[in-house]
């Protein structure tokens, strides 16, 4: 029963579009699928780091106000920067290659880093997982079972993001959204910049 509660709460949180969704969206529309999958792997890896903290009982990280403050401002600045890059991007066809913008870099490692940095610099991820394990996981739950919870949630994040990348990267979806790609990127840029600002003022 404990697992069902945790899995349900976690998946419901995934359904809410956040910065990660808009990163996957712009990568899936602009670049081949393998680069969107690299972003997905980076996001999942960062979630895995915070889940490792939660599983091992490192709730003390939440009490490190200086660390959380640094994460908040770095994460806000990073999201704002990505948002500005999308807002400043000129109108280009969906098939046109762009090399100057690091968001368009055709390098798997760099796209992994884009996803990883987005998720690891978001202190809301740390707070969410630590709160989940503090409130919903019994103190009597074994370390092995808690580890299973962590692996499960990391894999769910990865598979959900991969599903989004496959859907958004389908040729028919690209063709439809390709006509509006300039405006899609501007909306994504505005939302990412908003996420960045809201993160720093909270």
Largest sheet: none
Q: Distance between the terminal alpha carbons, to the nearest Å?
A: 34 Å
With helices defined by DSSP (H or I, 4 residues minimum), what is the helix count? 10
Radius of gyration: 18 Å
Shape: globular
Count of spatially separate domains: 1
Structural class by sheet pairing and helices:
mainly alpha
Indicate the low-confidence ranges by residue numbers.
Answer: none
How many runs of DSSP E, i.e. beta strands?
0
User: DSSP strand (E) fraction?
Assistant: under 5%
Proportion of helical residues:
over 70%
H/E element string? HHHHHHHHHH
The overall pLDDT, averaged over residues, is 79
Protein topology:
Blueprint: H1 2-14, H2 19-30, H3 33-55, H4 60-63, H5 65-88, H6 108-120, H7 123-136, H8 143-168, H9 171-178, H10 181-201
Helix pairs in contact: 1-8, 2-3, 2-6, 2-8, 2-10, 3-6, 3-7, 3-8, 5-6, 5-10
Q: Could you write a compact summary of the structure shown?
A:
This protein is mainly alpha-helical and 202 residues long. It has helices at 2-14, 19-30, 33-55, 60-63, 65-88, 108-120, 123-136, 143-168, 171-178, 181-201. The radius of gyration is 18 Å and the shape is globular.
Please explain how this structure is put together:
With 202 residues, the chain is an all-alpha fold. It has one domain (19-201). The chain has ten helices and no strands. It has helices at 2-14, 19-30, 33-55, 60-63, 65-88, 108-120, 123-136, 143-168, 171-178, 181-201. Helix 3 runs parallel beside helix 6 (108-120). The longest helix has 26 residues, at 143-168. The radius of gyration is 18 Å and the shape is globular.
């Amino acid at each position: 029963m404990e697992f069902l509660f945790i899995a349900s709460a976690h998946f419901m949180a995934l359904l809410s579009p956040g910065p990660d969704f808009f990163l996957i969206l712009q990568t899936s529309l602009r670049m081949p699928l393998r680069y969107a999958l690299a972003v997905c792997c980076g996001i999942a890896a960062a979630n895995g780091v915070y889940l490792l903290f939660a599983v091992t009982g490192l709730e003390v990280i939440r009490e490190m106000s200086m660390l959380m403050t640094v994460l908040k401002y770095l994460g806000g600045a990073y999201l704002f920067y990505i948002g500005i890059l999308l807002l400043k991007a000129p109108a280009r066809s969906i098939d046109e290659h762009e090399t100057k913008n690091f968001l368009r870099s055709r390098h798997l490692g760099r796209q992994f880093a884009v996803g990883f940095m987005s998720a690891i610099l978001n202190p809301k991820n740390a707070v969410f997982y630590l709160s989940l394990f503090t409130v919903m996981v019994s103190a009597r739950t074994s370390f092995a079972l808690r580890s299973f919870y962590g692996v499960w949630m990391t894999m769910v994040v990865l598979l959900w993001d991969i599903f989004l990348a496959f859907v958004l990267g389908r040729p028919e979806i690209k063709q439809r959204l390709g006509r509006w790609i300039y405006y899609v990127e501007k909306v994504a840029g505005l939302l990412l910049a908003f996420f960045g600002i809201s993160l720093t003022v909270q």
